Amino acid sequence: MAAGGGRNAPVCGGEHGYRAPQHDGMRRDGGGEPYWSRPECRVWTAVLLLGTCLLYCARVTVPICAVALSAHFGWDKKQSGVVLSSFFWGYCLTQVIGGHISDQIGGEKVLLLSASAWGFLTFITPLLTQITSAHLVFMTCSRFLMGLLQGVYFPSLASLLSQRVRESERAFTYSTVGTGSQFGTLVIGAAGSLLLDWYGWESVFYFSGLLTLLWVYCTCKYLLTEKDLVIPIDYLMRSISISKQNKVPWKQLFKKAPIWAVIVAQLCTASTFFTLLSWLPTFFKETFPESKVSTGGGRRAGLPALLSESGVVFCAGLATPCCWAGGGALPLGVAVPVAVVAAPPPPSAAPVRSGQIPASF
Predict the structure, then answer these.
(1) Over residues 296-322, mean pLDDT
(2) In this structure, are residues 4 and 11 in contact, taking their beta carbons and an 8 Å threshold?
(3) How far apart are CA 227 and CA 225, in angstroms?
(4) Domain boundaries, the chain
(5) What is the C-alpha separation between 20 and 332, in angstroms, rounded?
(6) Is 37-343 a CATH 3.40.50.1000 domain?
């Protein structure tokens, strides 16, 4: 999606000659380095961390309210599962296109456009359920659309940081911003559960949607100028077609073992994480029926996110030195799961040798 290096930095070796796409929005003044200064980087890191937090606040509204929604609309487990899973059908469709458009027009524009859309959708969801009787169809379509809108976030984030953050600081910055996913799960698990207990499930949607819209407004007002928010027509036309110079060498990429390692790792991580994210509130409510919804569901469901916070930042701090040392991130990727996973590996798991991954990756 987004290039991994700075301006004109090859991402998969000099032999392929692929270079990161550039756009004029990378420089406000038309000259100098494209990277943020240290103060700018700190501010943007905090802002994007908050944005990622709000992303997950909006994403987890339905899982937190799943028991209340099922009781309110008379859904069974199968119908609840349809609503919960519909998000991911939309989420997987906009990943590639989101990264490509971000490379052309700027990741910050795509981030703010999508955030304003999903924030507004989250805010009006309780209102729209009052004007339709097909609640299951509406909530399924709403979650599918939410997935489409949020699917561009992390590709846009990768595009933005790859163009504006120095390579030596990129891994730590991206991981710091990424911890917002755990913070968001904790916030909505605690505050959302209290709102659910005190004011009903509608308040959780209002809370999450309003905070997202407020974040978009403040970011546009204080960090971006009017010129930054304009998307020229030629950028849109360039985002439709990829020039030969910037064409991604997919064939060469998919021949690399590290690419498949990342794909498999992401598949395993996401399938486990999102299953827990979607069903833990319901599980705790049904397993501890004597507890209130706030105590038995949302708060306990945030425990995995709480434990993962330190690991994310710690591993990111080690990843960049490992890569710069020439050994790649493989030793870190092997050592960390062994250290934190309590269960033994399955008998069919084959050991991974460091020599299987090229040093360039």
Answers:
(1) 55
(2) yes
(3) 5
(4) 37-343
(5) 27
(6) no
Contact 297, 317 (CB under 8 A): no
Specify the range with the lowest mean pLDDT, choosing from 129-138, 233-242, 267-276, 293-302: 293-302
Q: Are 211 and 184 in contact (CB under 8 A)?
A: no
What is the pTM for the complete model shown? 0.72
Mutual orientation of helices 61-73 and 180-199 as an angle, nearest 10°? 30
Strand partners, 19: 10
260 is written with which tokens?
A: 């498949």
What angle, rounded to 10 degrees, do the helices at 61-73 and 135-150 form? Answer: 170
Q: Binning pLDDT at 50, 70 and 90, where does residue 142 land? A: very high
Angle at 92 between CA 85 and CA 237, to 5 degrees: 140
> So what's the pLDDT on residue 31?
42
Tokens of 325: 């040392």
Residue (of 284, 289, 287) closest to 300 by Cα position: 284
